[in-house]
Structure formats: C-alpha cells, structure tokens
Amino acid sequence: MATKTKIKILDDIELRKILDEEYEKSSQVKLCKYALILATHILTTIEYKDKKNPIIKEGYAVNESWQKGNARMHDVRKAGFKIHQLAKSSQDIVTQTALRVVGQAVAAGHMREHAMVSSDYAVKVIYLFILQA
Question: What residue numbers bound the domain in which 104 lies?
Fold first, then answer.
C-alpha cells in the first residue's frame, strides 16, 4: 500500500513507489538502520557543525540499543522528541528540517512510519538546501 507524505513536498512518484515497496517488505529494524544512515547523510550534506551534540548522539544510541532489544519504544520516542526540541530551537530552516530528519529517524524505533517521514523531510531538506545555494 502506498504511503502518504505527512509534510508538504514535491515528490517523485516513481521513486516513491520504489521506496514504498521496500518499506512494505522491510522489518522495523531494517527501516531504523536505513533512517539513521539517511539522517547521517543529510547532516553531512548540509555540513551540520554539531554532529557530536549529546542529544543527537543519545538518540542514535537509544535507537541502536532498541534494534538489539535493549531499549523500550518509549525510550526511543523520548529521544526523538528531544531532537525535535533541538530542531525547534534552530533559526535556520535547512538545519531545522535536517534535525527533523534525525528526530524522525530516531523515532522509527517507536513506529516504523517514522522512517518514511524521515525520508520526506530529507526530500524537503535537499529542496531547501538547493534554494539557499
């Protein structure tokens, strides 16, 4: 079943279909791994300066711990919320949106749908990043 974007983006329908197919057949752990790799890629792409921020590091660690069965969904959810608070505090729209990619990626351990929302925010980051160039 096709997923619906949760945010306003101009999406490539054919690529979305491919992503939806992968989403449907992937485990939640695989989606978490994908989302964290995507989040790292986005932070690198925008040259985010604070990748070692303890809130981000904790979020990744909690998600990775959840993947191994060593953390609760509640812990992952809380870690995602902390990253979204960090995003809200950013004055730069590209950075703010990139941190939303990270927050959603971390939260994928809570609900698999967050991996797709992370992808949607990544599309938005690239669009905003190109506009600023």
Answer: 30-132
Residue 76 and residue 71: Cα distance in Å, rounded? 7
For residues 74 and 107, what is the distance between their CA atoms, to the nearest angstrom? 9
Domain for residue 21, yes or no? no
The CB-side HSE value for 113 (13 A sphere, CA atoms) comes to 8
And the tokens for 130? Answer: 């190109």
- Dihedral angle at the C-alpha atoms of 102, 108, 113, 119, nearest 10 degrees? 30
- The domain total for the chain is 1
Summarize pLDDT for 4-48 with one digit per residue, the tens: 777 777 778 898 899 999 999 999 999 999 999 999 999 999 999
